[in-house]
UniProtKB/TrEMBL annotation:
Record's keyword annotation contains Lipid metabolism: no
Protein name: Pectinesterase inhibitor domain-containing protein
Membership in a protein family: Belongs to the PMEI family.
Top-level taxon of origin: Eukaryota
Pfam families found in the cross-reference section: PMEI
GO MF, one annotated term: enzyme inhibitor activity
InterPro entries, per database record: Invertase/methylesterase_inhib, Pectinesterase_inhib_dom, PME_Inhibitor
Keywords: Apoplast, Disulfide bond, Secreted, Signal
Residue ranges of every copy of the Pectinesterase inhibitor domain listed in the record: 28-182
Record's GO cellular component terms: apoplast
Cell location: Secreted, Extracellular space, Apoplast
Amino acid sequence: MEYFNKIVVIFVLLSWLTHLHPSSAGSNGDRYVRDACSVTQYPDLCIHSLASFSNTAKQSPSKWARAGVSVTISEAKKVAQYLMNLKKRRSMRGRNRVAISDCVECFLDTVDNLHKSLGVLRELNGQTFNTQMGDVTTWLSATLTDEDTCLEGFDGQKGEQVQLLQNRVSNVTYITSNALALVNKLATTGPESPTDP
């Protein structure tokens, strides 16, 4: 028992010391993600969803844009799968059944547009940068439109299942909005040189 108590005391002491003196990498990482997310409409969500990219993206607008789109793809795929399962179960009736079918189509388009955007962001070229940014912002804007169209199908509808669906789709809409803001930041800063971090 005494051995166990010593281990607990050491653990508590180490935790306390670590809390008092956070590593500089942690504070820089926190600063990087906060700086990147400062241009977004939903900065808290941005920080939460992109914090793991801090040490790799650092101060690189192109890496933050890619990270934002990557996270959006992941979340959109989850919601697309959720919507397809709802459609398959046929648990919704009437107007909601039509709306869920429309949502599935919207989210298939969403995932496609997000993949095209990420593909372009991975192949940025200084000579075609403005055209590439135009394409990416067009696809991300179309993604937001698709997500809004999905939500509009459930306007005025009630029920726990509808509320859950609206919350999940809205969350992806917020993440998409953040990704678009990060892409817009990249578009205004211009292409990075190959030596940039």
